[in-house]
């Protein structure tokens, strides 16, 4: 059961805090500010990711080649080089791509 419902869009949540975080999308509230540049974010996790711009911290390391990334999503995309995974397939011609941007350009 999801008792906490957003009155703006109807999406429901199990936890009230998840609803509060979601509602920031509608209100534009950005309570998390970067101490370095002042840029503001809806979620603390977005601030943490942003702060790596200033520190150049790269905590996500590829176990195959050692290349490091600031975001786990970038590591996941990179690893397709090693695995050969091509998750984006054109339904018209059947060609597959490892990046969504390349697929969209196709």
From TrEMBL:
Segment forming the signal sequence: none
BP terms from Gene Ontology: positive regulation of DNA-templated transcription
InterPro entries: Znf_C2H2_sf, Znf_C2H2_type
Gene Ontology molecular function terms on file: DNA-binding transcription factor activity, RNA polymerase II-specific; RNA polymerase II cis-regulatory region sequence-specific DNA binding; zinc ion binding
Location(s) in or outside the cell: Nucleus
Protein origin, superkingdom: Eukaryota
Protein name, as recorded: Z286A protein
Organism, as annotated: Pterocles burchelli
Encoding gene, per UniProt annotation: Znf286a_2
């Amino acid at each position: 059961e999801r008792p906490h419902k957003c009155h703006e869009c109807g999406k429901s949540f199990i936890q009230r805090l998840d609803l509060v975080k979601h509602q920031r999308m509608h209100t534009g509230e950005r309570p998390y500010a970067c101490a370095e540049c002042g840029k503001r974010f809806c979620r603390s996790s977005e601030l943490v990711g942003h702060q790596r711009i200033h520190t150049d911290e790269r905590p996500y390391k590829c176990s195959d080649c050692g290349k490091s990334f600031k975001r786990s999503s970038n590591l996941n995309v990179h690893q397709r080089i090693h695995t050969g995974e091509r998750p984006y397939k054109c339904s018209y011609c059947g060609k597959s791509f490892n990046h969504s941007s390349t697929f969209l350009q196709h």
